[in-house]
Each structure stands twice: as structure tokens, then as C-alpha cells.
Design brief:
By secondary structure, the chain is an alpha+beta fold. The protein has one domain. The protein has a three-stranded antiparallel beta sheet with strand order 1-3-2, sandwiched between helices. A hairpin with a 2-residue loop joins strand 2 and strand 3. Helix 1 packs antiparallel against helix 3.
């Protein structure tokens, strides 16, 4: 049996990479991953994204979640 994470994980990773997003749970991790001339937004739960891509990323993540739920219900029922 598959879980929702099986349907969305790869698509989320692709969206993070395309948006230039990364996870950082400390200042050290943030400093290691950031690019100097880019302004970043914290999107919660350690997710960091360039300000210019943040809204688009959140919209894409919502879409991925909805697609995953639909696929999960289709294959596994409610």
C-alpha cells in the first residue's frame, strides 16, 4: 500500500530544486546553502526559498498535494 508521501515526494523535490529552495534548521545550515546576492523568505518548517520564487513555490506545492490526494484516493479509496 502506498501513502500520500509516495505520490508527492519526487514532485516536491523537483519543485524545491527548480525554485532554488532548501531546508535549513540553523543559521549555519542557512549560511552554507545561501547565495550571496539573493534575498530569502522562510516558508515554515525550515523551508527557505528566494523571495522572488516563494509564492510560485507555495502554489506549486499546494497543487502537488492536491494531485497526490486525488491519485491516492483513485488507487486506494477513501
Amino acid at each position: 500500500m502506498k501513502y500520500l508521501s509516495h505520490y508527492i515526494q519526487d514532485k516536491q523535490t523537483q519543485a524545491f530544486n527548480e525554485a532554488g529552495a532548501f531546508f535549513a534548521f540553523s543559521n549555519q545550515q542557512f549560511d552554507e546553502a545561501k547565495k550571496d546576492s539573493v534575498k530569502y523568505a522562510s516558508l515554515g518548517m525550515g523551508l527557505i526559498c528566494p523571495v522572488d520564487n516563494a509564492k510560485q513555490l507555495m502554489t506549486r506545492l499546494d497543487s502537488i498535494a492536491q494531485e497526490g490526494i486525488t491519485e491516492d484516493i483513485k488507487e486506494n479509496g477513501k
